[in-house]
Every structure is written in C-alpha cells, then in structure tokens.
Specification:
The protein has 14 helices and seven strands. The protein is an alpha/beta fold and 540 residues long.
Length: 540
C-alpha cells in the first residue's frame, strides 16, 4: 500500500476503511516523528564532532606545537593524528548516504593512496566464482580482466631454529673419524644465529629498545632470552665490529672538510646509584664533496677540547663547528697535537643555523621586528643553497659568488648598523654580536663551491641518539659507551649511504669471521658507487 488513496480500491466497509485510514495516518506520523528525531540526534552529534574536529586541527597545527621538543612533538603528533582520524570515522559513521539537510559533511582532501613498495613479496590469493555459468541466464562466463587489490601485512618477529646435521664417518682401517668442520662464527659455540644477533643489535641501536623489552618480545613467542644473555651478545658483537669502526674513522680523516658536534650522555656512576655526564662526540664528512658519507661517534668522559684534539690527531682542513670554546685551540696558529709537535691550524667554519637560531628564539619571545628582518635575510641565503644543491662544485661556486656574497655583504652592513642602534647587554645585542664575532668563519663557505653553510647534517646524525637516550636512560660504563659509539658509527654510516643498516649488519656478521683483514674496506657500509680511499689524500 503506497498511499491512503489505495484504500479506495479495496472493497471494504466504509466504517472499517475509516479506521484503517486513521491507523495508517497514526503510524506514518509516528514514523516521521521518530525519523525526524533520529535525524536531529545525528545532526546534533555530527555538529558537535565537527566542532571538536576543528578544535583538534587548530591545536594540532597551531604554533604551540612548535615549542615542543622533537620527541615531545613526535608523540604529540601521533596522538592527535589518531584522535583526528577517530573523529572523522565517527562523523562518517553517523552521516547518511545522502547529505544532511542541516549540517554539511566535512570534506577531507585526499591525495590518493600511494602504491605499495614494489620490492615487497607478493602472496597471491585468487578468488574464483563458485560456478563458471551465469547466475542470471545460465550462459558460460568469459574472463575479461582481473580486479586486483593489495593489502599490506606484517609478520611479527618470528623465531625459528637452524638445525645443522653433520654426519660423522669412520674409517675401519685407520680408525679415523671424518665430518664436516664447524665454520667459525661471531660467537663460537653460541646458540644465536647471525640473524638473531643482527635483530638484537638493530633493535637496541636503531629502534632504541632496551634489552628488557627484547626479553619480553621473545617471551611472547615462548623463547627465553635473558637480559644477561642479550647483553653478552651485544658485547661480543661490539668487539667484533671494532676493527670496522676503527677503519671507518681512518677513512673519515682522509677528507679535508669535516663537521663536528657533541651531545651529553648520562653514564652510570658505580657505587653512587647516580649518573654522571659523559659526551658523545660526532664527526661527519662533507656531503658537498665526492666522497663516501661517513659519521663517526667518539664516546668520552668529558667535553674538554683535548678529546677533539685526540680524535683528530694531525688532521688539517676545514672544520665546521658551533661556538664552543673546546674547538678554539684547533684554529690557533700555535696548534699543538697531543704531543709537543707543532701542527698547522685548522680552518674554522661557522654554522649559519646557530646564528639563525638565536634570532628565531628572539622573534619567538617578543616578535622583534629586528629578529624578523634577520631571519628573512638569512632565508635568502638558504634559497641560494637550495638552488645550488644539485649543481657541481664549480657551478655552485659561481652561483654563490653571484648571489650569496652580495647578500652577505648587505647582511653584514645591516648587522653593524643595527648593533649601533641597539642597547648593549640585551638579548638583541647578544644575537647581533654573536653573528658579527664569527663573521669571517660564517662567510668562508660562500667563497667556494664545496664548503657547507651549516652544521645541520651532524645534528641530524645526533638526533637519533637523543631519542634513544630517552629509552635506555644511561650508559652502564665507559666501555659500554665506546661500544655503542662504534656500533652507532657503522649503522649511521649505512643509513647515510642509502643502505638498510639491519641487512648490512646481517651480511657483515656472516662474513666477518673468515674475512681477510687486508680486504676489510670491502665490508664498510659505503654505497656501491662509492670508492673507499686506499691512500691518504693531501689535506689543504
């Protein structure tokens, strides 16, 4: 019955027909009221969620998030991105297929799903119809195409056992027993295969998981791996990798331009139950030169300049550093090595990112017009660097000569004029003086095509260490710190050269026990198109 008018077609008594019509009208009215109430409820809920979504987006993308530390910001973004997606899912679930009359459905821009990586294994699942005949007319079906959809899946850490069987054969005549020899391994007679050792090292130093968490992960699979056992494996692998780390440092020091920086690392102080401050020094190769990308970490008990002098030894060249006084002796004309031998001074390069950071902090604090202009002037220098990134060293030198040097000259004049008008002793004056005091070292890069503008590449290498520090809290000893530095150097260099650190480590641990020392350079984590040096180059 489509309407009340259909009642006229039925042969009913007029009194009955009137009762039926009244009943139908009551049911229709009740249904309409219920539907209107449900629509109103959904519209109210959608409106509330829409306002909540707008609020979360405003908080998520507000400038307040910029004030957080890198680690805090990562956690913040993960949490809020999850909440944003959850709210949008609720709105979609409440929304009818047809647009609501009162509340517009929020439109979320979508860029389209990126294709899944081609190198991943494809496991095909074919879903054929139950019958080869048409369900409508019974005719035979003809294949026209394949409708393919892909889903990404993952298999958690899967433990399995390699069972090596070596039959033994005896000679009845001379009573000699013959069997296949057991090949040497990183840990002789150990139960850990190379893949397990690589997983432990990668989890600890790449994913920043403490050993007790690895113990828990193994326990979920019914495998007992005590922390003491895991610690023993880490120590032995660290010893085995030490020659590679030492050779990596040698290659680094063959370059004539280096970056350097340092970060504090807590170290357990035995007997006190507390920690003391140690330092992880980072030395990085120059990306603007044709040379393997290398980062080397050096763990030391303090921040004194003697640690940098000890690591660099007789190295000479351009050194990119911040304004820390510990490096100053390296740039002195009467530079001394660790002994009494006089050495030529290194050439100082100053970091423009540190200069910019001081003006950025000043602008964030009080919206200083002076700081804003400084930031805008420095931004122009970085625009030139972005253009010259893909150029050759000679073309980059010409570009800097044409664009950067005039900008630097204008910036220098502006800094001097602004300082003369600024009250001494304040934060503005300190920011201006910092740039002017380091001016010769700041502009040195612009006169060449191969020197860097800042020290950001080293800070990027240190950042994972800072994240890991939040998880493992402290180094247990100086030896543990040096072992971690060696492993981090190798894994960090692998990442810089576009290699999978875990895969490189697995392959290296497999080869290392029988690898000749004369060919150790072949195991270093360089890109395939990089050619490690075999002879020292002449430093300038």
């Amino acid at each position: 019955m489509k309407s009340l008018a259909d009642l006229d077609q039925l042969n009913l008594d007029p009194a009955v027909k009137s009762q039926v019509a009244a009943l139908v009208r009551a049911l229709l009215e009740e249904t309409q009221q219920a539907s209107a109430a449900e629509i109103a409820r959904k519209d109210f809920k959608i409106e509330a969620l829409t306002h909540e979504l707008a609020y979360y987006k405003r908080i998520r993308f507000s400038t307040k998030s910029e004030a957080l530390t890198a680690l805090q910001r990562d956690v913040f973004e993960e949490t809020w991105n999850t909440d944003l997606s959850a709210i949008e899912a609720e709105i979609e679930a409440l929304s009818d297929p047809q647009p609501s009359a009162t509340v517009a459905k929020p439109k979320r821009p979508r860029a389209g799903r990126q294709p899944l990586p081609g190198h991943l294994q494809r496991i095909e699942h074919r879903h054929e119809p139950d019958s080869c005949t048409c369900g409508q007319c019974g005719g035979n079906l003809t294949k026209i195409r394949d409708d393919i959809t892909e889903q990404l899946d993952v298999e958690p850490a899967r433990f399995f056992v390699h069972r090596h069987i070596r039959p033994q054969y005896a000679c009845r005549r001379c009573e000699t027993v013959t069997a296949e020899a057991v090949p040497p391994t990183i840990i002789d007679s150990g139960m850990a295969a190379v893949g397990l050792l690589a997983w432990v090292i990668a989890s600890k130093y790449l994913d920043h998981l403490p050993l007790y968490r690895l113990e828990q992960i193994a326990a979920r699979s019914g495998v007992t791996l005590s922390r003491s056992t895991l610690a023993d494996w880490v120590g032995r692998v660290g010893v085995a990798l030490q020659p590679l780390a030492g050779r990596l440092a040698w290659h680094l020091l063959q370059g004539n331009t280096l970056h350097a920086d340092e970060t504090p690392v807590p170290q357990l102080d035995p007997g006190t139950g507390k920690t003391k401050k140690a330092y992880l020094w980072a030395y990085r190769s120059n990306d603007l030169q044709t040379y393997p990308r290398i980062v080397v970490f050096d763990y030391q008990k303090g921040r004194g300049g003697e640690h940098a002098r000890h690591f660099l030894g007789g190295w000479q060249g351009h050194l990119m550093v911040d304004d820390y006084a510990g490096y100053k002796s390296l740039f002195s004309p009467g530079r001394k090595g660790m002994g009494t031998q006089a050495l030529a001074a290194c050439v100082e390069l100053a970091c423009f990112a540190h200069v910019r950071r001081k003006f950025f902090d000043l602008y964030q604090a009080n919206q200083s017009p002076m700081a804003k202009e400084a930031l805008e002037r420095i931004a122009l220098l970085y625009e030139v660097e972005a253009i010259g990134k893909a150029l050759s060293n000679e073309d980059r030198r010409l570009l800097r000569e044409e664009k950067s040097l005039p900008l630097l000259e204008g910036l220098h004049t502006w800094l001097q004029d602004t300082l003369a008008k600024t009250a001494p002793g304040g934060t503005s004056s300190k920011a201006l003086k910092h740039a002017l005091n380091r001016w010769p070292a700041l502009i040195r890069y612009a006169k060449t095509g191969h020197l860097p503008i800042d020290n950001n590449v080293t800070e990027n290498c240190i950042r994972p260490i800072a994240i890991g520090r939040k998880n493992w809290l402290f180094a247990g000893s100086e030896r543990a710190g040096k072992r971690a530095a060696a492993i981090q150097s190798l894994l960090g260099t692998a990442k810089l050269n576009g290699l999978d650190p875990a895969a490189w480590l697995n392959d290296t641990l497999e080869k290392l026990p029988t690898w000749p020392n004369s060919r150790i350079d072949e195991l270093l984590p360089f890109a395939k198109n990089s050619s490690p040096l075999t002879q020292p180059i002449i430093n300038c």
